[in-house]
Every structure is written in structure tokens, then in C-alpha cells.
Amino acid sequence: xxxxxxxxxxxxxxxxxxxxxxxxxxxxxxxxxxxxxxxxxxxxxxxxxxxxxxxxxxxxxxxxxxxxxxxxxxxxxxxxxxxxxxxxxxxx
Length: 92
Prior knowledge:
Helix content: 25-40%
Mean pLDDT: 87
Oligomer: single chain
Distance between the termini: 22 Å
Number of helices: 3
Largest sheet: 4 strands, antiparallel
Shape: elongated
Structural class: alpha+beta
Order of helices and strands: HEEEHHE
């Protein structure tokens, strides 16, 4: 998912900054054994502030990834969590 994000966020001109993006993807009580399926991850991304913000807008890469997560995990469980957050770390 984030390889797509990195390619979609690339832009020229503005100063690139380092963000730590963390996405929580957990489906709770799945299947007969009621196991939790956790595919959460974090990744550092070097991009402009405007591109990071745009990723969360409707039809942005993170927005779409979260919609896909909700669709996928809702098919596995009624109890699930899909969230992403990016925090500024430093200049690239």
C-alpha cells in the first residue's frame, strides 16, 4: 500500500520533509478461533507538506487506502480498525 503512496506523493518544487506515517489495520475476533489479524505498519516518507495533506483528501492515496482497508476488514469482522497518521520528523 505504501509503495503506491510514495509514488503518488512525489512532486517537484517544494521543500521535502520527512514524515513518519503509521497505519493501523486490525480485524478483531476473526474466524472460528476469534483471532485478531494485525497488518499495521509504519514507514518514513520524504515528501512535501502539501502532498502529505492531499493524500488524506477525498480520492487521495491515503484516503483511498483507508477506504480499501475498511472494505477488506469489514468482510472479515464486524470489529475492525483502519487509521493512518503522518507526523513530521525532520527535513529530508
